[in-house]
Amino acid sequence: MSDIVSIKGLKYGLQLTFAKGASFDDVQANLLDKLQSGNSFFIRGTTVFVPKGHFAEEQNETLRKMFHRHGMLFSTELKRPNLAPPSRDSAKSPSQKFKESVEEAQKMMVINHTIRGGQEIKANCSVLICGNVNPGAQVIAGGSIDIRGTCRGFVHAGAFGDKTACVVADRLMPAQIRIADIIARAPDEPEKVNQAERAMIRDNQIIFEPVAR
After folding, report:
1. Where do the structural domains in the chain lie, given as residue ranges?
2. DSSP conformational letter for 150
3. How far apart are CA 180 and CA 159, in angstroms?
4. What does the DSSP assignment read for 54-80?
């Protein structure tokens, strides 16, 4: 049964393939066994890709719910998040393109609602969320991320490589947090903090510190 589901690690998630002739019930049981056994591939906040059209929509929905219960995202579209810098003019120099991507990241998208599990927010700029980021939700920003609520999902600030970006939340409890190319996970038993926190890079690692609103 261990060979029913094969896992390939990608830079932006996990790709699943299945043994020829395996039934959906066998695949579901094998995946559940891997999830419950603490398989090192299945980190909370990771996106899992299943080949489009391999399963019926209702079966995909069953898998989506199963992965969300374990704090993971599910997709049938195997493609890198569309976070290319806004300028695509090949005639521009690398320094011009970098300057424009930094300027874009300094702008801000404002979202006035909670991001539910399974939802994804992708922006070239910074993001302000007036609401919560629920487990299974994903926020990817070219700049910083400010959450006026509780963060329990996956957040990636500085997606272009900006290590000065940060993540701020009234309660910072992410399934996984990434700033530029640095990754951290929330502790299994987070300390009780009565004020907002900021996550930022210091000495090439992500640190959490209280911050005044």
Report:
1. 5-75, 94-210
2. E
3. 5
4. SS-HHHHHHHHHHHHHTT-EEES----
Task: Classify 94-210 by CATH class.
Answer: mainly beta
Do you know the residue count of the chain? 213
pLDDT band at 81; cut points 50, 70, 90: very low
Q: Which residues sit opposite 152 in a β-bridge?
A: none
The CB density around residue 202, as the number of other CB atoms within 10 Å, is 9
State the Cα–Cα distance between residues 120 and 106, nearest whole angstrom: 20
Contacts by residues 4-10 (CB-CB < 8 Å, ≥ 24 positions apart): 4/30, 5/30, 5/31, 5/34, 7/34, 7/39, 7/41, 9/41, 10/49
Q: In 3D, which of 160, 152, 148, 194 has the Cα closest to residue 177?
A: 152
- For 108-161, write each residue's pLDDT tens digit: 788 889 999 989 998 888 888 999 999 999 999 988 999 999 999 999 999 888
Tally of CB atoms within 10 A around 172? 25
The pTM is what? Answer: 0.54
For 107-120, letters b (16+ CB in 10 Å) and e give eebebeebbebbbe
Asked whether the beta carbons of 27 and 51 are under 8 A apart, the reply is no
Q: 14 forms bridges with which residues in the sheet?
A: 9, 48
Give, in order, the Cα–Cα distances in Å from 102 to each of 77, 97, 140, 142, 179.
Answer: 28, 9, 15, 8, 15
